[in-house]
Amino acid sequence: MLRRTVIASIAVVPLVLTSAAMAQTVSGETPDLPPRLKLAPTLEPPPPKASSPGAPAERDAIFLRADTVTGDDQKWVEAEGKAELRTRRQTVLADWLHYDIGTDEFWGKGNVLIRRGVDWITGPEAKFKRSDETGFFTSPVFHIGENASRGDARELTFVGADKYQLKDFRYTTCVAGNDDWYLTSATVDLDRSRLVGTARNATVVFKDVPILYLPYADFPLSNERKSGFLTPVFGSTSGRGLEMSLPYYFNLAPNYDATLTPRLMTRRGLQINGQFRYLTPEMTGEADAEVLPDRITNSNRYGLSWKHNQSFGFLPGLAGFVNVQRVSDDTYFADLSDRLTITSQTNLPRDVGLVYNREPFALLTRVQTFQTLQDPNQPITPPYFREPQVLMAMNPVEWHGLDFAANGEFVRFHQPALVSGDRTLLYPTVSWTHQGNAWFVTARTGLHMTHYDLDDPAATEPHINRVLPITSVDSGLVFERDASYFGRAFTQTLEPRAYYVHIPYRRQDQIPAFDTAIDDFNFSQLFTENRYLGNDRIGDANQLTLAVVSRLLDPASGEERMRFAIGQRYYLETQRVTLTETPRSANASDLLLAGEGRLSDAWSAAATLEYNLTHPQTERFDVGVRYQPGAGRVLNASYRYIRQQVDPTGVISQLKQVDLSGQWPFLENWSVIGRWNYSLVDAKTLEGVVGFEYNGGCWAFRIVGQRLTTTTQQASTSVFVQFELNGLARLGTNPIDVLKRSVPGYLTVNDPSLRPAGAAASDYFPGF
Length: 768
Prior knowledge:
The protein is mainly beta.
């Protein structure tokens, strides 16, 4: 018996099927799923194509071993019994292998297996000729990628460089012994040089019932995008009726693409949506447009959006931006969208500007206007236009232990129904910071200077100057100790902090409130100079904030497990400057308390409380609890209370809301998902979601109902039905975006993280 290892420079048979096709995915697709025809989340140049494996430079040395190896070193080599051929990139196993050195051809029989990475293909017989890359593989069975998809064919033929043909092809992502669904095709041609595959007479079979037939289909190989139809989307809503969308994706270039989507609504008509995206080293952006001849309103309705960011190479640090949105009418989003964040939009920006950054300076100049969408039952005052606005900032510059900084602004405010005018502002500051390992002190002083030129002919003071010196001192300490709570060891911190601000009084009631509002009172606002947002009111202040934070840290990892805080502001003088509020009479603010943390690996909670000590009552209270013992199992509960809130129309109301949501498995392979957001004050449901999901192992089914109250106080009802074949396609209406937004912690029932422990390729092909 001749036993040797033969080393030669020969070709390696390229693995035929390395991945499923991928082009584009609609927003909200789960990224962990295997590639398929879908909208690319980002635009980027494709990776360079690998050179042909037949090129001489790519010929790898091979290592051949078996129970018996015989042959002529100049003509042929034959291996029998556990034959194994290895190269740098792949492995070939067979009961018997023959390699003809003269013709550069190998031939394998008996349990032939070619493996490359996590991909492999096996069959009873294979032959491959290196010189012209021709050959065959009989009855191939293959495994594709880490997602453990598998398939088979009657025959695979190598038909030239990087070109393959499969007869009677079948593909599925189901485990071995379970063929709930599979894709069949009479002929599949793969051209890896062009990264394109084509299938003829393809049929999708589910539970032995054909559900989709495609006489011809082409698809991309690897991860590159390709033009073509995307998965159709179906749905039903009370306001739009039955609807269907069929997107077509245009892969125009690696750095720009487009999508055209007809959307048929039985009650309203046919809407056409177009999207164009682009990306270059100097700019990026997205333009969207849609038009609908609405049968209900008897009008042509449209929506436009353009977002653009531009850098200018001729001047480093100079960039531009555009953010323009417009719709045809006030109820456009309420009638045509299912997302609460969209239906609640009231002011659509039209923003164009330039930004310049060159340390330590930053400059912004823009023109900003708005389209205000009005609810006839609750009209609001449109915001002021900025035509134009110029902002300047100088980041802190250190000099002899002092930090010098400045902010400046010129803005022209315009609103036809209100007083218009110009505002010029300059606010230079100087600060000093000294700190140690467990303490810090920061003192700051500045001069806030503002000038107004008003267009109001009735104003007694059309030109107003306001100069305010502002002084603050911020200080804090950090203590640590070892502690034990609930039978666990922690590192506990104690972090007291004191913050003092002094701003003298200046009369300001003659100044319009162009962009100013009362700031929300919270822990962050406790440590700011001004109690107002914007620059039209600078609140008089002679006040001291005292607060304490305590954290419980894991002594091994330093991870924060819990945090508790308490804080209050003390006023040394009465309030004189106001906006719309009544001047306070108390000498202290409401008391703020907060706590959050992970009570265990499954339980977490957070709560904040604003309590009025002068008139003992709760002003604001938020509490939330989450129970999440594992992936796919989550329960959320929260409660929000605000004693008095002011809406954009100036109406004062109380807020009491309960928000319950969760996802939980029940029965076998079923999960129930739901959300209930209820207003106790209005005695109505703001948003209700209920759905069921079934996990079939390699397929999933979802049915979800949603009831949403829009800004026009109308209720919209939607039904989402989706059927998903893992690794192939999703058919129906996509409810996943709604579920992820409505249920924190939600996972699709077929998420890879929910696979049973130990699931491996052997589950999909027992002989692996």
